[in-house]
Amino acid sequence: MTQDEMKQKVAEAALQHVKGGTIVGVGTGSTANMFIDALASKKDDIIGAVASSEVTAERLAGHGIVVLDLNEALTKVDSLSVYIDGADEFDADKNLTKGGGGALTREKIVAAASDFFVCIVDESKCVAHLGAFPLPIEVIPMARELVMGVAGKIGGNPILREGYTTDNGNIIIDVHGLTIADPRGLEDELNSIPGVVTNGIFSHQGADVILMGTPDGVETIGL
Hints:
6-stranded mixed sheet; 13 strands; single chain; alpha/beta
């Protein structure tokens, strides 16, 4: 089974967590795109979806799925029923690294507004410790050198993502070479730097369940 086939399997398996009459949070990335394509089969059963990026919103709308702004959605329901998204890495405690596509801030916001976070990945994303994938940090442009200096002091190699601007109008600094033994501690430490919007460690907004695609099928981690 190819990597894309494993992604397709977990995207389809995630549909079991979509309940009729609810609003669904949807992430960003290649696996999330496959989920959006699968979600089209249930578009008449749900109220709509909240997107974590402009790209995701466009794909949802292209399938005729009603796209709601999060503020609008939360006037209709107390919370989103489920948030479904991929990850760049995950560890045994269901901590995640996300933001390879640059949507980490909106992804955290939508995850925080949801009752349940289903992470859909293939087995290549499973790691002993986060850090093999460069850690993205969304930063207000004025704070670029401040944040890069701090990231260097904690043992990383910070590199500006050239030519990229987030949907929020900010920059991304990717920190290479980290071994993240304490995901929650580092998430909090980086978020405390003035000018950091958020970073790509999802520990506070970690997954409730992970659906992992393997050559033998979909493995459920966390239930």
